[in-house]
Every structure is written in structure tokens, then in C-alpha cells.
Amino acid sequence: MALTGEELERARAEAQTHYRELRARKAQLDDDSIDLILRGARSHYAWRSDPVSKETLQTLYDITASGPTSMNTCPARFVFVTSQEGKARLAKSLKDKNIEKMMSAPVTAIIAYDLDFWTNLPFLFPHEDRRPFFEGKDQYIEDTAYRNSTLQGGYFMIAARALGLDVGAMSGFSNQIVDEEFFADKNWKSNFLCNLGYADESALFQKLPRFAFDDVCSFL
User: Fold this and answer.
1) pLDDT, tens digit, for every residue of 99-120?
2) Residue among 202, 144, 139, 195 nearest 171 (CA)
3) Is 80 exceeded by the pLDDT of residue 1?
4) Tens-place pLDDT, residues 76-103
5) What is the 3-state secondary structure (H, E, C) of the chain?
6) pTM: predicted TM-score of the whole model, two decimal places
7) Sheet of strand 188-197, all strands in order from the earlier edge strand to the far edge
8) Of 5, 43, 109, 164, which residue is most buried, by most CB within 10 angstroms?
């Protein structure tokens, strides 16, 4: 139910105060923190056997869910594949070179999106009914779900690194096979896969080049 009147004003004031106090305590991340989540982070393909606890995955989701999406649609769905049975099913979809990367990781997350996300908008966006924006508009639903689940997948990877996990995203798989194997009874589609765990850094190679600012950035 949407807040109104004094309750709404109080909730807004609390949100503003919380944000101001947070920025006062931590105006920006230090260099090591930035290196950990992005600048010095790497995609990993080899893994130690250390397990990832369910509690860590729950915390990972809670952080990820805090990230913004358009109209707070939150279309991403996360399936944590940890069992040998689940991994065997997932392996059916993978290119050969990716099977060992997935099988050796403690967790492989299927980052998916729910095409029925918009039916939850009365809960997620309670102050205005936005369902008419989507009803009967299949392409708009698909575009919104794919774009925002990809955004949530980015939050997911950064949040994992912030918690001390390593990640290795993969797109070398058949989305059709994953969808048939895991989502036959749901209106979900797979976006990408992400291995999670604690990396065996001895498998790393040198970091590949990136474009310089002037190569890809401009001002208008």
C-alpha cells in the first residue's frame, strides 16, 4: 500500500537523512576498495574448493536488490546452481570449453528475467499503477526485462566482489537449452551465467587492454 500524508512525509525525511549521514561518513571509496570491485578485479576461470555459504548468497542478493531499476521493476531472477545434479543439467547448455569452468566453481548463478515482472508493480511501485504501460506490449516487456536484469547482473557481480567473492561471467551457452531445462514451467528467460567462489589466482593471465578516455568518450 502506498504511503500518504504524514507517513509519506516522514518516510521521505528519514530517507533523506539516512543518505546525508551516509555520505558524511563515507564520501567515496578508497583506492583499494575501487580496485577490489572494478579497477583491479578480474574475471576468473579456476576455483578453489572453498564453499560459499547460503548466508553469503542471501547477503549477496540483499545488496544486489538495493540497486535501482527503471520503475523499480526488479525483473532479475537468480538461480544458484550448487548441486552436482544441477550442474550436470546446466552443462548440457555450455560450450565444451566452459564446462570445466562451471563444474569447478562452488556456485554458478543463472541470471534470468521474469517476463511477468510487471504484474508485481502494485507492490514494487505502489504510488501509481504502471501496469498499463506494459499490458499487451510484449516487446516493451522484453526490452525492459532484459535491460534491467542485465543492470541487476552488473550489481550482482560488483556486490559479490565487495563481499570477498570472485566472479566469472559466461555467455558461451545456449539460452534456449537453459530455459527449457530450468524454466519450462515459468515465464522466465536466461540472460547470462556467473560463476561464484574463491578463485585460484594461479590461472590468471595479464589483463587485456582497455580503451583510453579520448577513444570512447566525448562532450557535447
Assistant:
1) 999 999 999 999 999 999 999 9
2) 195
3) no
4) 999 999 999 999 999 999 999 999 999 9
5) CCCCHHHHHHHHHHHHHHHHHHHHHCCCCCHHHHHHHHHCCCECCCECCCCCCHHHHHHHHHHHHCCCCHHHCCCEEEEEECCHHHHHHHHCCECHHHHHHHHHCCEEEEEEEECCHHHHHHHHCCCCCCHHHCCCCHHHHHHHHHHHHHHHHHHHHHHHHHCCCEEEEECCECHHHHHHHHCCCCCEEEEEEEEEECECHHHCCCCCCCCCHHHHCCCC
6) 0.95
7) 76-81, 107-114, 188-197, 166-170
8) 109
C-alpha cell at 30: 578508497
